[in-house]
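stage 2 :: seqdesign
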């Protein structure tokens, strides 16, 4: 597997997207601090923060402005009542409007990056096979989410391929009338 070129070119930038919901800005701040301590080179990271709250103090992120390739905050407000649907819709807005680099990553606000040079490891894994488009944490078996597909907790992907699949970050929906979980047919037919 070829090693990743560490030059800060557009092809090597990883965009990491977070959704800042109620009271989550301090967790995102901590997560970003762990990126600084573990990434191979901070200037290859672009932080995208989706604003989906009314109580977030975004000034907390000012300390990162010159440490990464970029730190950007975008309005991704969602009015969905269910928290998972609200979160998924906000991620969809962030993904479809602002992810434009070769590599993207979505991260929950409360994750910590622990492995040194995780970025090189994950990009090499992502590029180890032309059939791989996304790598990340999975869901436990018998959990009411997609199986054999990285979850929203933290996954890295080739942005253009996921956009071609017309992906959504919204969760499964429970069909009360038929007592079953349903998912978006147009996506699942391309993934499984």
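stage 2 :: out
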């Amino acid at each position: 597997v070829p090693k990743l070129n560490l030059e800060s070119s557009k092809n090597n930038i990883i965009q990491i997207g977070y959704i800042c919901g109620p009271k989550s800005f301090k967790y995102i701040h901590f997560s970003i601090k762990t990126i600084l301590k573990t990434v191979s080179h901070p200037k290859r990271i672009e932080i995208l923060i989706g604003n989906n709250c009314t109580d977030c103090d975004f000034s907390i992120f000012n300390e990162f402005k010159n440490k990464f390739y970029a730190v950007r905050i975008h309005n991704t407000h969602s009015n969905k009542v269910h928290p998972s649907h609200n979160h998924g819709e906000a991620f969809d807005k962030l993904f479809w409007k602002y992810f434009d680099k070769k590599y993207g990553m979505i991260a929950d606000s409360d994750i910590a990056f622990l492995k040194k040079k995780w970025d090189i490891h994950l990009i090499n894994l992502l590029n180890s096979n032309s059939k791989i488009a996304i790598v990340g944490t999975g869901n436990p078996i018998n959990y009411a989410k997609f199986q054999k597909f990285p979850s929203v907790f933290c996954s890295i992907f080739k942005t253009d391929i996921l956009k071609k699949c017309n992906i959504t970050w919204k969760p499964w929906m429970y069909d009360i009338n038929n007592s079953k979980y349903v998912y978006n047919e147009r996506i699942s037919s391309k993934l499984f």
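stage 3 :: structure notes
- The chain has a mean pLDDT of 82.
- Residues 83-98 form the longest helix (16 residues).
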